[in-house]
Amino acid sequence: MAIQSGWFGKRFTDADTVDPLLFYKADRKTYFAADPLKKFKASAEGVKDIASVQKEIETSEPTARLRLAEYRGQVTVAMIYDQAPIIDYFRQVDADTLLGAMDRRGDKGTYFFVLRRVA
């Protein structure tokens, strides 16, 4: 299910090649990787539909990596953004589902989300 921004999910290629922000293109069938800093700037400027600024924020470079980290007393996989003070922690629910918790410096709460594998 797409949210208003068109967020599709994340792509984990290997431990050092992660695309943390995938968004649907205008066709709402395919997706692109967004540079987090450019995406955050677009959102701060009031952009709601990220596909409308695809050319300005798309990247072909990975912008995060995976490492083991402790979260709430348990070692888990963490996705660390390269240029933003954000760490996403993951717990496997089943073979195709991850529960995520986004920890961002300055946020008072935790943003929880679910990722489901797509072929």
Main attributes of the structure:
119 residues, five-stranded antiparallel β-sheet, three-stranded antiparallel β-sheet, 2 helices, 8 strands
Give the structure's gist in a few sentences.
By secondary structure, this protein is mainly beta. The chain is built from two helices and eight strands, in the order βββααβββββ. The radius of gyration is 14 Å and the shape is globular.
Could you characterize the architecture of this molecule?
With about 120 residues, the chain is mainly β. The chain has one domain (about 5-115). The protein has 2 helices and 8 strands, in the order βββααβββββ. The chain has helices at about 35-45, 55; strands at about 5-15, 15-25, 30-35, 65-70, 75-80, 85-95, 95-105, 110-115. The protein has a 5-stranded antiparallel β-sheet with strand order 4-5-6-7-8, with no helix packed on it. The radius of gyration is 14 Å and the shape is globular. The two termini are about 15 Å apart. The mean pLDDT is about 95.
List the helices and strands and how they pair.
Elements: E1 7-14, E2 17-24, E3 31-33, H1 36-44, H2 54-57, E4 64-71, E5 74-81, E6 86-94, E7 97-104, E8 111-116
